[in-house]
Structures are given as C-alpha cells and as structure tokens.
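Question (not urgent): is this output format expected?
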Amino acid sequence: MSRVSPWLTGIVGQSRAINDLDAALLSEQDARRRQARALATVQAEVQSSIDQVDSRVGAVGDQLGAVLDWTEFRIQLLEFEEYQARTRIRKVFRALAQGGPARLPDVEDVPGYWLPPAAKAVLSGVLPRNENDTDALDGDRVLEQARERDPIRADLLVVAAGVSFGGSALLHAAVSRLLTGPVGLGHNGSGVAQGWRSLWVGVALGGFGPVAAEVLSARLADLFGAAATDAAELAAWDRAIKTFGSTGDSTPAEALIALRNHLVVAQDDTEPVAIQDVPSWDTYLRELLEEPSPAEHSLLREMEQLPLPAAKGRRSEPSWGTDAATVVALVRADLFDPDAPIPLRRLALESATPLLRAQLAGILIAPGPVVTVVKRHGTAIEVTGDAYDPERLAAVERMIVLTNPVTHPSKPGSTAVCAGLAAAALLLVAFGYWIPTLLFALMAPVPVWKYRDDCRTTEAALARRNSRLAEVRAELTKACERNVAAYRHRTEEYRAAREALEHLLEALPPQAGRT
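Got this back:
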C-alpha cells in the first residue's frame, strides 16, 4: 500500500513521486540483501575449498613423508646381506623354471641364514653337471649346515624344489625327516600344517616312493592313536557313519551297506596316482625363496607401521605353515569323502580302523517299546506298545462323565401328578363345576408328555457321552495298533542294519585290532 494518499494531501503528483521513491528504496534494499547473501555463500565456499586444500596438502605431506621413510627403509633393506643373497638365489630358480641357462648362485654364506647353503645343496642336485662345477660341492654337508640353522625350511625347500624340478638326490631323506618331525612345521597352530598335509597327500598318492609311504603310515598310526579325541569329534564320526551316502530317506542298513562298499573299494583298488595331483609345492617354493630372514624382521615391522596403502609393505604368513585341521579330522575327511583319491582313503582306513570299530560297536541301539501319548481333557495317557494306563483312562472317563451330565426323569412323580390332576377333575364333576373339571382333565396328560420328552433328552445325552467314551477307547486302540506296527518296522530295520554292520566289520582290515 502506498505511504502517501492523494485523498489526504490533495496533491496527486507529489504523492506519486514519494511513492515511487519508496518503491525504489525497497527494491535497492532487497538487492543489497541478496548480494550480501550471495557474498556470504561465496565466502563459505571459498573457505571450505581452502580447508579442503589444506587437508589434502597435509595428507599429501604425511603420505609423502611416509613414502620417503619407506624408501629409506627399503634402501636399508637392500643393504642386508640376506636380501642380496635371496635376490641372487631367486634369479637362478626363476631361470631354471623358465628353462633358461642357470648355474649355482655366486653368494657368500651369511652367518645364521639358512637359505644360501640350502639353495646350493638343492641346486647342486637339480642343475645339469655340465653347466656348473658341482664336483667339489658336498650337497649333504651343505644341507646339514642349512638344517642346523632352520631344519624345517631347509627340508621344505629340498622337497618343493624336488617336486617342481625333479632330480634331487636329497629329496627322499628330506621327506622322511619332515614326516617324522612336527606336523605343525614349527608354527604355533595346534593342528597339521598345510605343508605337512601336502606332503601327506603326496606320499599317499605314491609320489615319494614306498619307503616314504611306510614312514607316513607308521607316523599316522602313532599320531592317530595318541590324539585326544573329544566328544565333539566322536559325534562327528558317528554322524559320518550314520549319514554316509544318505539321500534324506535312507535307512541305517543302506548307509552301512554304502559305507562297506566304499571301504571295500578303498582296499581293493591299488592303482597309483601321480604326484601332479598335489600342485601346491610351486607355491611353497616361491614363498620359501621370498620369505625375509629373521634379521630383516625388525626393519619390516617398522615399514608395516607406516601409513601406506594395504598393498605395500605388508607381510603374509606362508601358506605352508597355516593350519589345515587336526589329524583325526583329516583322517575322517579322507575316509568318508567319496571323491577322495583311493590311496588317501586306504591310508586313512589303515590309521582309523581301531576307532572305526569302536564307533561301529555302539552305532546301533536295539529298538525299545514305542511310546505315544494321547491327550484328552487335560490328562495324558501313555500308550506303550499294545497297553495303556487304565488309571489314566478311568480319570479321563470320569472327566467325560462330569462334563456330560445325564439326568433321568422320575416316572413315579409324573404318574402321581397325572393321577392327582385326574382325581381333582372327578371331584369337581361331583360338585357340578364343569369348567374347572375340563381344565383339570386337559392338564392331566401334561406330566406324561413331559416325562416322555425328558426320556428322549436323557437318551440323547447318554448317547453323546457314550460316543465320547467310545472315541477315547477307539483312539487308544488305534494308538496301540500304530505302536505295534512301528515297533515291528523298527525291529526289521534294526535286524537289517545289524546284518549290514556284521558285513561291514568283516570287511575292515583284519590286522587292525578291536578297541
């Protein structure tokens, strides 16, 4: 609304000019406020950008400092004699793997470091004689020097190189030493290390000769016999036996028959399997050749603490030292796996026969009487076999009688009322009261009609109660019949399972004694 009205001033032109000036002033104030808001927004954006730049500059500075520190540590790492020796040794193995010319690495012995003497001992047996001077190198002596520093890694390198390249004369002795050594390969795990498991599988498949197979069989027998088998592991063996070959609706006899056929095949089939079925030794060889020495660990720990991406400066535990499982669990897996190689199954059967016999001895339980429960009116009646508790049945019958009462009509009372009404009608006739006489005469049959109606009601209630009592007895009779049929079926299944179990026990290796 205009600030000045011409109706009050009487001056139309002056009023219009004042109003136009006010509008212009208001418009200018609005424009200034918009400019102030826009300026504040720009200032906030500029400040935010400055903060982001400062943050990024700080982050880049920190990252640059970490990279410089990592570079300095890397330079220090390159100066380690262990690192230089390991680099030269890796080059020789890489050339050998690629089929190129290779010769013994020109590395000096590093005190306390196992790899240089172990690599020389391995390469002396792998490289061709005409490409290197091995006549003066005693492989056994050099390997023994490496084993004094780290026996497990030295023997693992011999086995990994022997499997990957072949031709190593030190292979079989190293395999025997590893088989008789700790199954955890010196790591803190409580089970079998992956490297020992790979050796287990390779020996079982025939890749390391009959002597190694005998050593492994004796060692597994000792380990399996001394292993503490807890309740959980025994329950796992029971499940494996009961559910072997199960398709969801298999009977115990079918499971035992399938297990017998499975074990018979494991004993009868003696076809050898090639060592190429165990491809993990190449990985173990690479890890052994790349693993830092103990002297480098302190420097590597400092490198790991730098704020670098996860892909840099991080060590990983060698796969050959990780836990595979316990001895008992691995034997169980080999024994019951239908897809496991037959030599593995056969070796597992030789080790697990005593435990298997012990578990089979208690795997079947003779069926007892079948018990079902019939509930009626808050009372549970146990039906055992073809009999049930008569006291519980009597309690149910009493409850049915109480909840379905039956009232019998009184015939003498109805007759007395009818006779009284008839006598009253005769008495009134004698005095000449015809209308009351007619009424009493009409009322005389009513008690009789009422009595007959009550009799029909009583008969219906009694029939309902008897029907409910009969239903309870019939249900108990059906429950007895079902129990008898179920017991007969369980007995037949048990008899078949017992026969299958006897055949299974006969099929087990006879040299394994019972426990």
